[in-house]
Write a structure and sequence with these properties.
The protein has a three-stranded parallel sheet, sandwiched between helices. By secondary structure, it is α/β, with parallel strands linked by helices. It is globular, with a radius of gyration of 15 Å. It contains four helices and three strands; from the N terminus they run βαβαααβ.
């Protein structure tokens, strides 16, 4: 099982209390559920993506997109959907990964 959280689980912004809490819930339940499902040989992981180039993000005003990219450490751009897919495939293939959260965010730390 691969859950999708968000960096907002760790760095929620103003006006994102409910969203951050929901994504934080996914983060918080990852390890306990991994422990519960281990007896059935089911693994659970969570990916917490940062700013990705999605249709929703592309619809945002250019100045909003540019400001978000400025908070990314390296590479100085939005994540690509294929990078997310690569990580998901790696998680599926690596059977020793279990009960962990992986941030996929270019080192971004979101401002308040």
């Amino acid at each position: 099982i691969i859950n999708v959280a968000s960096v907002a689980a760790f760095d929620g912004q103003r006006g994102q209390a409910a969203y951050s809490a929901a994504k934080g819930g996914l983060v918080g339940m990852t390890l306990p559920i991994a422990r519960d499902l281990a007896r059935d040989q089911i693994r659970i992981m969570t990916v917490a993506p940062g700013v990705f180039s999605t249709p929703m993000m592309q619809a945002a005003p250019e100045q909003v997109r540019d400001a978000l990219v400025q908070s990314i450490q390296y590479p100085k751009r939005m994540g690509l959907p294929e990078e997310f897919a690569d990580l998901a495939l790696s998680i599926v293939r690596n059977r020793y990964l279990n009960g962990e959260v992986i941030r996929l965010d270019g080192g971004v730390r979101m401002p308040p």
